[in-house]
């Protein structure tokens, strides 16, 4: 019976929590069995849920820790993506109002980098083209978009052509550093800037075609004539100070970056059907339509003779209705100042104002005297004499009042609506 007592003591020792120290020496092997047996229910449950393919092994204590860490890992990994998804929405900059209410303008700006890259030029009217946060750049794009009635594709095509033209022609240099023949262009073009009482400025360009002395001399070289005309235009554009703009113009509102143009056709009966003049006129219109959109506020044709009807018809072919509606033919140049009551006194006397003649106070392009000026002057005197004779014949044929004798009745009829438009 003494031999059997250890067996009875050993058997309960595995189950008894309060085992004696003597029994512990015999429980080293059962301890491994206990530790291997106790995790099994947990291993079976988690193995079935997380890793079905894992077979129970002797290293299951390590396996039991791995699912626990795996449970923590997804929670730590999933949180950052949620924060990243919300972050761009919170930090996205607000779109400027002029882009938000004009999707076409926003789309136009998206195309601007490609336009600049394609043309190889990034300057328009003295404005370096930047992004939609730059007011001068926005104003430039608005003008091109306006000129194409909001059609982004057409505006893009026109801006690309205009930039390529400026790169090739370098109109700024034509205005600032190029000189022109006084014999050919002297007295034909001027620039004035008139100031309103509130400080606003009105830029006016003057083309005095009645001052042409010799048709072939002035219009014979079409390219030279166009360059001279572009130079005068660039002087006026510079006075608009578009690069100094601090605010964006209203797409559908008033545009302060526009000028007035006056074309004086007094004694220009020689313009009747001259091929050189018609070619130069056509080319000038094409260039200005492409390269200077929405810079014209209004255009006045003064002292218009009856034979000038063909010119107005030609303009309507190349220009949009939005542009031609700005045209105002006036038969008597002395009535021009009436169109600008607040500036009337600053206009030259010959146009109904109180200021000196253009030759005395207006600016013009750089002019130089030609070496052959004396011979050309004699020729121009003869041409001027012929012009006066033709003008006298035209006036004698027109049986009307002095006011109407210089203008086509159809043109005169348009004079009243022009005044209403003002």
From TrEMBL:
Membrane topology annotation: Peripheral membrane protein
Function (record text): Non-classical phosphatidylinositol (PtdIns) transfer protein (PITP), which exhibits PtdIns-binding/transfer activity in the absence of detectable PtdCho-binding/transfer activity. Regulates PtdIns(4,5)P2 homeostasis at the plasma membrane. Heme-binding protein that may play a role in organic oxidant-induced stress responses.
Name this polypeptide is given: Phosphatidylinositol transfer protein SFH5
Location of region: Disordered: 1-93, 369-422
Similarity-based family: Belongs to the SFH5 family.
Native source organism of the sequence: Aspergillus fumigatiaffinis
Lineage, uppermost ranks: Eukaryota, Fungi, Dikarya, Ascomycota, Pezizomycotina
Reactions mediated catalytically: a 1,2-diacyl-sn-glycero-3-phospho-(1D-myo-inositol)(in) = a 1,2-diacyl-sn-glycero-3-phospho-(1D-myo-inositol)(out)
Record's compositionally biased regions (Low complexity): 52-67
Annotated keywords: Cytoplasm, Endoplasmic reticulum, Heme, Iron, Lipid transport, Membrane, Metal-binding, Microsome, Transport
One GO CC term on file: cortical endoplasmic reticulum
